[in-house]
Amino acid sequence: MNGFKRLLQKHSFLCCTYEDVRCAWHKIFPVSTPTPVWYKYNEHPSTETTEKMPLNHEWYHINRSLYRKEHVYYNLQNALRVNPNVKGFAFVFFMGIGDYLYTTPMWEKLKEQFPHIPFYAYVGAQFDKTNSPLVGKVLEDNPYFEKVFYFNGARYPRVWKNYDYSEVFSKAPSDFLIIPVYYEYSVNTSHRVHSLFETFDLSVPQDIPVPKMYFPKEIAPVVQFYLEQIRQGAQDKKRIVFLQLDSRSSDYTYPYVLELANGLIAQGYYVISVTKGGPVENSAYLELDIKKLSINQTWQLLSMLKKEYPLYVISVVSVFWAASAGLGLPNLGMQHWVDQKIHNVWYPNIEVITNYMYPLLPRDKQIVAPPESFTPYNKKMVNYKPEWVIRWFKEKFEH
């Protein structure tokens, strides 16, 4: 990456201004960029059997940065038709764990199309607002990927799709296509999973497929340890409630973890949390140590608990919106800021607490919070009062 782009990466305001000007210039003076037959900007590649571009090193990866609101569509069958030297696919991930979960229904379908092509995963090695390297640990349990690697990259403000993944160009085998995992997230997109299927030229399912969860066959000792601890604590409780009340992408943590947990315990629930701040001295409360338990082990633990107890989730909009759908758990989801694109990440198992009515979410899945039930957190976000959260939880899930 050149020095100018490194400068833009470090200064968000400069980057945003540059990208706005670049996008406006492109609209006034559009220039069509020639692409290989296996991808195209803003439209689906047509089926091709011949290639006009040289099959050199540049052919194997996308040839320029994207403009704001621009998208890339793939036709990987075309690549194999015109280039017999393609030996594998290097999928590049620069996203959070929740973002990854939305991709999981797609890999099985792609592998059905390309059963003899190895899938390698390349994951950004750093934490930032776009990327979590923990995605790599979850990918290690995904049966459709033969290998998982990491690369040193950098977030690009304003246009997340222009994440610097150039190191993959030298790390991936020279005969592998380098394919960034893109999706659309917009008001006009019906759902992120649908966007992923469209991006990769797959038949779009009518119903939204829930995330696929893959666990090791052998249960890790730490998972068994927590399972036994929960069994002891929850043996006289009517239900278990799992809390995930912080969001990396919005830099938000629910401030009433202690009050919410205590209120649920008072109602007869056993409470598990991955967000700190609860009543750790209470025998009906367990705070999971995420330094000892990986995210995939946490999901495995919940999948095992579900077989033994009525299990529910209360979460802010984050990774557990997708995870709860994959695990088939009822979720009371707190939408703590107004996001017109929220339908992109919603699943039917989620009852949404909101202070704004979303026209693209089912009305019967929205709990419209009255003004007295929340307090402002900042100019964009709100905090829902714990007594109201418990009230809505009981109304929705106590039958």
Which series of helices and strands comes N to C? HHEEHEHEHEHEHHEEEHEEHEHEEEEEH
What does the average pLDDT come to? 94
What are the low-pLDDT stretches, counting only 5+ consecutive residues below 50? none
Our measurement of the CA-to-CA distance between the termini, rounded to an integer number of angstroms, reads 57 Å
> What would you call the quaternary organization?
single chain
The helix fraction, in percent, is 25-40%
Q: What is the rounded Rg? A: 23 Å
Number of strands: 17
The number of distinct helices, counting runs of at least 4 residues, comes to 12
How much strand? 15-25%
Structural class: alpha/beta
Sheet with most strands: strand arrangement? 11-10-7-12-13-14-15
User: How can the largest sheet be summarized?
Assistant: 7 strands, parallel
Give the overall silhouette. globular
Protein architecture, described:
By secondary structure, the chain is α/β, with parallel strands linked by helices. It has 12 helices and 17 strands. β3, α4 and β4 form a beta-alpha-beta unit. α1 crosses α2 and α8 packs across α10. The longest helix has 17 residues. The protein is globular, with a radius of gyration of 23 Å. The mean pLDDT is 94.
List keywords for this structure.
399 residues; alpha/beta; seven-stranded parallel β-sheet; four-stranded parallel β-sheet; 12 helices; globular
Question: Any chance you could write out the topology, listing elements then pairs?
Answer:
Elements: H1 3-10, H2 12-28, E1 39-41, E2 72-74, H3 76-82, E3 88-93, H4 97-113, E4 119-124, H5 134-139, E5 147-151, H6 167-171, E6 176-180, H7 192-199, H8 221-234, E7 239-244, E8 246-247, E9 252-253, H9 257-266, E10 269-273, E11 285-287, H10 295-306, E12 311-316, H11 319-327, E13 331-334, E14 350-354, E15 366-368, E16 374-376, E17 382-384, H12 386-397
Helix pairs in contact: 1-2, 4-7, 4-11, 8-10, 9-12
